[in-house]
Amino acid sequence: MTGILTKYDVVIGLEVHAQLSTNTKIFCGCSAASGSEPNSNICPVCLGHPGTLPVLNKKALEYAVLMGIATQSTINQYSTFARKNYFYPDLPKGYQISQFDLPVCENGFLEISSGHGETKTVRIKRIHLEEDAGKSIHDRGNSTLIDVNRCGVPLIEIVTEPDFSSAFEATDYLMKIRQIVRYLGICDGNMEEGSLRCDANVSLKIKGEERLGTKTELKNMNSFKNVEKAINYEIERQFEILEEGGSISQQTLLWNPDKNEAYPMRSKEDSHDYRYFPDPDLIPVTISNEMLSEIRSMLPELPGAKIKKFTEIYLLPEYDSSVLTQEREIAEFFEEVCKQTLAFKEVSNWMMTEVLKILNEKKITISEFNITPQNFAGLINEIKSGSISGKIAKDVFADMLETGKDAASIIDSKNLKQISDPALIEPVVKSLFDANKQKVNELLEGKEKIFGFFVGQVMKSTSGKANPALVNELIKKELENRKNE
Amino acid sequence: MSSAKLPYSSLRDKKRLIFEGSLDLAQNVDFFLDKIASHKHLNAFIAVSSDCQNQANLIQEKIKNGNAGKLAGAVIAIKDVLSIKNINLTCASKILGDFIPLYTATAVQKLIDEDAIIIGKTNCDEFAMGSSNENSAFGSVLNPLNTEFVPGGSSGGSAAAVAAGLCDVSLGTDTGGSIRQPAAFCGIYGLKPTYSAVSRYGLTAFASSFDSIGPFATNLQDLFDVFDIIKGEDKKDSTSTSNTPVSNEINTKKIKIGIPADIISNDIQPEIRESFENFVLKLEKNGVEIVKISLPNFKYAIAAYYVLTTAEASSNLSRFDGARYGFRSKEVENLSDMFVKSRSEGFGAEVKRRIMLGTYVLSSGYYDAYYTKAQKIRRLIQQDFMNCFKEVDFILTPTTPTTAFKIGEKTENPVEMYLSDIFTTPQNLAGLPALSFPTGADQNNLPIGLQLTSNHFEESKIHNFLNSLTI
């Protein structure tokens, strides 16, 4: 790769399609849910039957505008729908309703990581609304089957300028887009199931030259890993061709994740002329100032702002901040907990280890988590106040997880409260020293290991409830006493 | 019985007679069914309803009980580009095959909801493309006044059915004159409403930004009684509106009518010209002020019309591809072959001509030269009209440059056929309402129609004005 980069600039642009998680389709009242029985969420409109007409789902428009606002885009308060004409059996009308010369959002940008701690601003050319096509199923015997359920599911297409110069940057952008659509609650971001899809335009430009190289378009990359692999594959492929004196032909390549190779789908020469023109069945989309400010007010705090807040207000290390803001619900859980405790770092530690581990193991989301933010804060406060030790806390946590009870009542009912009164621990230490004179001597001679033995014994005889710091302190004190005897 | 005259002069009259018990609706429906059968040679109908009599009995009861809808008893024929649930929709094309719609068009449903009886689906030019009703996969419709002549098109079957007395009223569609021209050729009334006044939901689209649904009738009252029912906003059609004010009584002495003098040229059949001039005299006797107006961009209307409507049609008809419903060619080798053969065999010549034209004008490299330019002309023509309506209430023209022509006369020359729409396409380009009314006949006894155009949503003003003429 370094050989390539000394001679060429890598130029990548992305087109991301996000399926909007509206209840109904973009132009009819059918359910937009995926995973239903094939051809069950259909009506004459999404079947494209003669005489049917599209009626825009306001929610889909709202979601597109939200994405525009989240990416600092200009919101076009006047936009239009256009028809993209092509023949395919899973496209019932013979055209896809999309937006062409007047998309709903334009000229946005997003900050991404270039690696090595550096950031970069990527320009978003446009975000437009469109309808999804159906699914053709080719692997059932000789015939091709059509599932129309997906026809008319709302999509936004987010198109960037060719601003990426590595697969790493492209992948980071895609992860950030996924994070934003999930924060906004407008798309579940599932790449494997195709609710977030990414096409990449890749070309190599000789350093110092103005003219861009011929680009190819990569499709069918259904995971972040595959996006990175496919782009790197394509960069190397183009480099090899150029180095051997060949030229790149403009074409669409399909990524094969099993073979780690890309194959040409169709060449642009015989590609479609989509004959875009304004869709006469839909009136222009107008967004009033009122509607725009209403949508603005729906905008949640976005990952960038959250990270800033977590480092500056909750004083968390950057690593903690980025882990805890990965998902909006996790971040909000953290903030909710921190409304009731000031031990922010302690909360962060517990969440990053215990909580995320449980969510992962049980494959549940934080909303299904059995401990409320309030109870979780209670647990942290019990630890901080010295009421229980960290070790006991883990047992209490497990109990809370199982019963949903609060920490205090578990500590009470199981009598787990930490012993922090020296008068209760001192006699235990003294009798332990008396019973183990040989070991006390060894310790006095400098055998540090023995110290742990005494701590363990004290904890054992207090059923683990003795305050460990206090135990340490009292053992040291008793040792001093014996030394002076 | 089929030669008997109807005992009523309007739908309101008919409903009264049924209420009074002097007309039996089931017998009336039988009368129409018999007449349709005895006039099969006109080829006006593609399908005739089988359960009209049952409906007739039910509706007659409702009329007698006083709880019937506004169009109770009206026997209505529907152009077969409008969808009716469970009734084969053909669009007079082979390509739809045995396609059965799952829903009913809004305009038709509104008629049914007002207790009208749908007697059948009428023949038309394939996908409403034509001016003579000779482009139907089900054969030509004949003009009931002289069967050697065309009834006009594309709503030829709907016009012929009303003119021949095979139903009370009918619905047609008008994209560039397809209601007004056949109304003129058949000697009846035809209204093309303001674009958006009637929901297009359920109308198989030819050119979506032009298509209007409207009625045919033998008198003005029936024409507007039907229009008043079918108009109105529909949530299923985002382009539909509810903006149809009802006009007050008209004082003819305050009315100004514009006549585009430069357009009523020598190319018009002399008898039409004469009829037009006689009507102008009649208007003047009624105290109407006649004003010469100029519509400078009218001459580009036909060209712009054919660029824009074919562009929209090429896209609208893409759904007929043999993949999901309708006709599919028998012997196909692959997917592309299925599309090509199904469409080549399924569409008629005129439809294919327009699809190719429309595909061409939308192609990259040609889009600006044709589509964009035609859109500009469309705006200029709209502007021409708006300028005129600052000065006048209505614009009067003949509906057609000639009366009905002979079957086969123009089929070899599509451009000449297109030119027969010269007076009717500008209103569709501008979305304006226009009404064709009969004013006489030529020497072959073929009817002559004149056309009144008003500003948007002034249909009832046209109605009241024509009603107010006394001489």
Layout of strands and helices, then pairs:
The complex is a heterodimer of chains A (485) and B (471).
Chain A: H1 2-7, E1 8-19, H2 58-70, E2 74-75, E3 78-79, E4 82-85, E5 95-98, E6 105-115, E7 118-131, E8 135-140, E9 143-147, E10 154-160, H3 167-184, E11 196-206, E12 216-219, H4 224-243, E13 251-256, E14 261-267, E15 277-278, E16 285-286, H5 289-298, H6 303-312, H7 318-324, H8 328-338, H9 344-362, H10 373-384, H11 390-403, H12 407-413, H13 422-435, H14 437-444, H15 449-461, H16 468-483
Helix pairs in contact in A: 2-5, 3-4, 6-7, 8-10, 10-11, 13-15, 13-16, 15-16
Chain B: H1 11-20, H2 25-38, E1 45-48, H3 52-65, E2 75-79, H4 106-113, E3 117-122, H5 156-163, E4 169-174, H6 180-186, E5 189-192, E6 212-217, H7 220-230, E7 256-260, H8 270-285, E8 289-293, H9 301-316, H10 335-346, H11 349-362, H12 367-389, E9 394-398, H13 414-419, H14 425-430, E10 434-441, E11 447-454, H15 459-468
Parallel strand pairs in B: 2-3, 2-4, 7-8, 7-9
Antiparallel strand pairs in B: 1-3, 4-6, 5-6, 5-10, 9-11, 10-11
Helix pairs in contact in B: 1-3, 2-3, 9-11, 9-12
Textual characterization of the structure:
The complex is a heterodimer of chains A (485) and B (471). Chain A is α+β, with helices and mostly antiparallel strands. In chain A, 41% of the residues lie in helices and 20% in strands. Chain A has a 9-stranded mixed β-sheet. In chain A, β8 (135-140) and β9 (143-147) form a beta hairpin. Chain B is an alpha/beta fold. Chain B has a domain at 11-230: Amidase signature (AS) domain (Amidase signature (AS) enzymes), CATH 3.90.1300. Chain B has 15 helices and 11 strands. Chain B has helices at residues 11-20, 25-38, 52-65, 106-113, 156-163, 180-186, 220-230, 270-285, 301-316, 335-346, 349-362, 367-389, 414-419, 425-430, 459-468; strands at residues 45-48, 75-79, 117-122, 169-174, 189-192, 212-217, 256-260, 289-293, 394-398, 434-441, 447-454. Chain B has an 11-stranded mixed β-sheet, with helices on both faces. In chain B, α1 (11-20) packs across α3 (52-65), α9 packs across α11 (349-362) and α9 crosses α12 (367-389). The mean pLDDT of chain B is 95.
